[in-house]
Amino acid sequence: MQSFIQILLRGLLAGLVGGLLAGSFAYTVGEPWLDRAIAVEEAQAAAAPPEPDGHSHEEALVSRSGQKAGLFLATALFGVAMGGLLATAFALLRRRPRAPGGVRSALGLAAAGLVAVVLVPALKYPPNPPGVGDPGTVTARTVSWLLLVVLGLLAGWAAVAAHRALRTAGEAPRAAAAAGAFLATVGAAYAVLPTFQEVPGGFPATLLWSFRLATLGTQFALWVGVGLVFAVLVERLGRSAAAPTATPVAVGA
Amino acid sequence: MSGTTATTQAAAVPARVFWTALAVVGALLLLTYLVAFDNGAVSQSGMLLHELMHDGRHLLGVPCH
Ligand SMILES: [Zn+2]
């Protein structure tokens, strides 16, 4: 129990660091594109006839500078949540016999998070700036995106299971089986889930592309930050826990 | 501590750790929901939380509007 709490606290701290790193990246690289997208969105709204049920942007609850500060709050809280989930998975998996070493599984889990939560959904549903996307499909898009996150995690599990199943085979066939299991799961998910093509015809292509790259960079900074900080912290925790028992082991050997 | 006992203890997750972990996962998923998906329905904050963290949602790549 104590060790679970120790690991969890380290995960939350690593998540905070990764989240603030992601916030700094998003603020520097992403915000200029976000501002431009909002300008395009406002120009579109001004040109279009007013909709009676559409929500108006005039009565903003939070100013643009408030939203830029809120960016750091959002990435920090999101990082804390991801760091905590990563640490919980790490603590539960660590109890299994034949689990890989601390640093390796900490980095492996962060890489799995990046692939499942970011890359797998982003290739099917690339992130959109304000001004892109039909408000009427936002629920369908969110549900499909969440399903793809779950299926991305499942694909990662399938790859590990395939790799383990071929324990007697060589490393090349095992890697091929793992890649095959991953790609088959993701391919099936891409084929089954609906596609949304909602970029307005006149939306600047460079702006869309740069914005999407900035979102990938933000998530990359978050998961790399979380993974590295968490790996360092659990490695130090493992060393301090192992230190008192090191002598009897040496005598026994 | 014998090797067998150590392996059995390591393989099974004690009930207290399991329930704590489950509660932690629930709380963290709620936090994720509030940051990434809330429209005021759960937080009862109207659109305040949504708008405050709106830039973060878009730059984290979460489907928004
Ligand atoms: Zn939005």
UniProtKB/TrEMBL annotation, chain A:
Keywords assigned: Membrane, Transmembrane, Transmembrane helix
Transmembrane segments: 7-27, 71-93, 105-123, 143-163, 175-193, 213-234
Superkingdom classification of source: Bacteria
Pfam families hit by this protein: CbtA
Protein name from the UniProt record: Cobalt transporter
Species in which this protein is naturally found: Pilimelia terevasa
UniProtKB/TrEMBL annotation, chain B:
Entry keyword set: Membrane, Transmembrane, Transmembrane helix
InterPro entries: CbtB_put (IPR012667)
Transmembrane region(s): 17-37
Domain of life of the source: Bacteria
Pfam families, per the entry: CbtB
Protein name: CbtB-domain containing protein
Organism: Pilimelia terevasa
